[in-house]
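ok posting inputs for the magnesium ion job
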Amino acid sequence: MRRVALLGATGSIGTAAQDLARAYPDRIRLVSLAARSNHEALIRAAEEFRVPRIALVDPEAARRARSAWKGGEVLEGEEALAALAAEDGVDVVVNAVVGGIGLKPTVAALSAGKRVALANKESVVLAGELLLGIAKRSGGSLVPVDSEHSGVAQCLAARPVSDVRRVTLTASGGPFLRRAPASIQDATPAEVLKHPTWSMGERITVDCATLMNKGFEVIEARWLFGLPPDRLDVVIHPQSIVHAFVEFVDGSVLAQLSIPDMRLPLLYALSAPERWTSELPRLQLLDLPSLSFERPDPARSPGLTLARRALEAGGTSTAVLNAADEEAVRLFLEKKIRFGDLMPLVEEVLGAHRPQGGALTLESILEADRWARARLHEAAANVARG
Ligand code: NAD
Ligand code: MG
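and the output
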C-alpha cells in the first residue's frame, strides 16, 4: 500500500492521480489533498477517498471549505503544501502543482526522505542540483512523472549513465508546428490552448507552443539523469507515441512507447520498480499512424534555445528562466501581452540576469525567482506602453 499526499489534486495530473487511486484501492491510499482555491472539487475528492486532511493555499477558499466540510482538517496557505508533503504516514508525495510554488513542498518531502512522484518539473528547473543533494543526504528520491522522463527512466532501468551515449526526448511540436512564425505573433489564448495530442493545464500547454516546455524538460533530464546537455537531444515527433530514446554506448537504442495518457507515467512513478496490471488504453501497433521524426526548427522553438542558454549559464539562470516564463504566460493568458511578446520578454530578463555561481541555496534561488518576476513585469509594462 502506498500512502499518498496529492498536491495539485484538482488539476489535470491531479485528477489523473485520482483516477489511479480509484482503480487501485488496495495499493494506493490518498491521505491528504491540496489545491490552490477550488474547494468544491477538493471536498468532493476528500469525501470520495475519505481523506482526513486537505489544504487550500487560498485562505478564503480554506474558510469556505471549513464551513462546507466537517469530514476532517483544513489547512491553509502556502506552508500547508510543505507540511502535508513532510508528514509522517506519507510514503509518496505526488507533486502536481503548477509553477515555482511547487519547489518548497518538493524540498520538504525529499528532506523527510520520501519518494516524490514529480510532475512539477519547475522544482528541478529551479533547483535541480540542490534537490539531488538533499535526496542523497536524506534517502528520498525523485521519480519523474513527465512522460519523456518516465520513458528514459524505464529504458535506463537503473543502468549507470556511463553506459549511455545519448538521450533523446520527443516533442509534439505543439499547435503551431506547421505555421510560419510570422503568422502566429497574434495567436490568441484559445488558439494556443488547442494542443494536438495532450490535454493538459494552461501553463504547460502555452509552454508547448513556444517549446519552452521541451526546454524545461532538457533541464529536468540534465539533473534527473546526470547527463551533460550535449548528450541530450530533442526531436519533433508529432504523433506523441514514442516518448524517449536511450542510446547506449554499444550502439543499441531503446525507446519507450505508449498512447499519450499521463496516467501511465504516473502509474509507473507510483509502482516502480514494480509494474502493476492496468486497464489503461493499449497501444495497437497495427492501427498506428506512421511515426515520423524531424529536427526542431530554431525559428519555431525559441523556448528550447533559451532553456539551453540558461542551462549553459548555470547557477540561478534556470530559476530566472522559469519565473520569467511563468509570469509572461500569465500575462498572455490575461491578454495583456501578445503571443509574439512571450519569448522576447523572457529573453530580455534572462539577458539582464547575472547568474550567481557556486553552491546555490534555497534562499538564493527564491531571491532570483522574485527578481525575475519583478523584472518581467517591468519589461512587459514597456511592451504594453510601446
Ligand atoms: P493544472 O493547471 O491542470 O493544475 C494545477 C494544479 O495545481 C491544480 O490542482 C491547482 O489547484 C494547483 N495550483 C495552481 N496554482 C497553485 C498555487 N499557487 N498553490 C498551490 N497549488 C496551486 O496543471 P497540470 O497540467 O496538472 O500540471 C501540473 C504540473 O505537472 C505542472 O508542473 C506541469 O508542468 C506538470 N506536467 C503536466 C502534464 C500534463 O499532462 N498535464 C504533463 C507533464 C508535466
Ligand atoms: Mg513532458
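notes: The radius of gyration is 20 Å. The chain has two domains: 2-144, 158-264+296-385.
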